[in-house]
Amino acid sequence: MLRVAVPSPLRRSFDYTLPTDSTTAPDSLQPGIRVRVPFGNRELTGILLEVSDTTSVNLNKLKPAIEILDQTSLIPAHLLSLWLWAARYYQHPVGDALHTLLPTGLRGKAQANIKKRKNDAVLDDAAEADHPDREDELTSEQQQARNDICAMSDQFQCFLLDGVTGSGKTEIYLQVINDTLSHNRQVLVLVPEISLTPQTLARFRQRFVDRSIAVMHSGLTPRQRLNAWLLAAKGDADIVIGTRSAIFTPLARPGLIVIDEEHDSSFKQQDGFRYSARDLGVMRAQRESIPIVLGSATPSLESLHNALSGRYQHLRLTRRPGNARLPVTRLLDTAQQTLEEGFSSELIQSIRQHIDKGNQALVFINRRGFAPVLQCRDCGWTAECLHCDARMTLHRTPAHLRCHHCERRQPVHTHCPECQGKSMLAVGIGTERSEALLQRHFPDTRVIRVDRDATSRKNDLNDLLAEINQGDPCILVGTQMLAKGHHFPAVTLVAVLDADSGLFSADFRGQEFMAQLLVQVSGRAGRSDDAGKVGEVLIQTRHSTHQSLQTLINQGYHALAEQLLSERRLAAMPPFAAMALLRAEAMNAAAPAQFLHTARLQAEQLLTQMPDGHQVQISGPLPAPMEKRANRYRQQLILRSTHRANLQNLLSVLCQQLEQMSTQRSVRWSVDVDPQDMI
């Protein structure tokens, strides 16, 4: 019997007999090969999990498989085992999980061959370097970190490379990677965003001119992605650089995994198969007996807790190399000030001083558009999305209202639909409004906006980054796209327009995310080796005495992290407890709560049958912080336990029961294990 994982929402595998025309001996079939099978009235491509002598299905009802597509497994046994473990841990249907992780080109009947030139997938858009980039001289801290990692090259060890912004973490990556390559082993490097991939690839091409580098991200064509996947699997790619899903790329000679900016929430898939690439990277490294390096200037509280408890080896980098120094940070209290479209007069003056010295300034506001609210002055009406519990954002280029949650668009109101008044007011600030104000104040200085709207076309972001890196005086205005790992040597001033939103978030991770974002964006200042380019960071806030802000500014990220960890420990919240969200949504407003109420009753009944059932706490059903989104109403159950195994045992049985509920056909439900986004 062929036990096959089929791409379907059902949480089980399916049994088939050999194809009727097959002459292949069953014991010669390897787990991990693709099999074409009948499924209802369709034909699907599944993954062979095992060949078995037994089945729970009546033999007369078994159908023969249609075709064996591969002679040998595309997926190494240890990687297939990881995939199956991940599907179980994240409570996702195994067939759908495996289908998701295969390159698009292998989800059908296509043969696993490289049909284009190798370099089509390997070199991507990067140019060949004429001469290799020389290794930088390391500081004593860097040298110690490099030596510690290289000493564990033939065994599993998770390293948390915890270094301040600009401390040279990338140089350590490069030197450790070079050591790994010298032992004829492959390296997998993950970055959180596609936007960082060209920058990372260019740096790697300059250093490793005689090595093949494969790139894996969603911006590639299916053929490019398949070629890169196969080159890695066959051992023809020495280095694989990719985003989240690249963690499942097979390597013929695995030697090292590097996850840069490990704290970034982009490493957690937020829909479908909700896996964490960072956590699976650690699990994969352990199974392959290789080291893994998690790098960040602002480690996640989970990773920091693992380092402090001895599970990870903690490597600290406390200063920048050469003449570069950490920027000086100040809070600007705006509680009693009159602001000009979000800018204090002191901030405008500081920008002018830095520009006059021939430097660059970066203005950070994590809100796209011109203004987040369009309001009637006469009656107070505001433009709200009809499909979401959210206001429409006003955009000026081109003029329209847009919901940033469901992407619904509509023309800008010239009259109030409630009172017919003509006095419409744009309330609040976004990147477009900040850009317009700065253009008025600095008409002779280039103002560059970097957000999703300004970089919607291919190469837009690369073109803007290239212009910035020319070093000419300019003002950058942007969202968190600017905060993630970019190197801007000419930026000497970073201005944060509003630091307050994270202080009062509905997400228990809100202050952690706020601190990480502030430190990361602040780290773009003062990165030049020119001793004369001293960095300055100005943070506007209406709550300058808030304890978390004071701790972050005066004592640093790690002091705040210790404070937050203490609070999490007292509240039994992650990382001191395991958590899962059971989400439900439907077009009918009452259906999600009804479904989750039944789910809670079933869960509580199951817990009475478990020896340690009392160790799992259930909260809800509760409306999601944004209850209505894209015309669907959303509710959630929060399940939490200080013993991860107890939570897993409950979820594995509960999910099977929920599949059998008749009401689930009108309700879309999902499980999010170790959720990163509570909103």
UniProtKB/TrEMBL annotation:
Listed SMART domains: DEXDc, HELICc
Entry keyword set: ATP-binding, DNA replication, DNA-binding, Helicase, Hydrolase, Isomerase, Metal-binding, Nucleotide-binding, Primosome, Zinc
TM segment ranges: none
Domain Helicase ATP-binding: 150-317
Function: Initiates the restart of stalled replication forks, which reloads the replicative helicase on sites other than the origin of replication. Recognizes and binds to abandoned replication forks and remodels them to uncover a helicase loading site. Promotes assembly of the primosome at these replication forks.
Subunit organization: Component of the replication restart primosome.
Protein name: Replication restart protein PriA
Lineage, highest ranks first: Bacteria, Pseudomonadati, Pseudomonadota, Gammaproteobacteria, Pseudomonadales
Annotated gene: priA
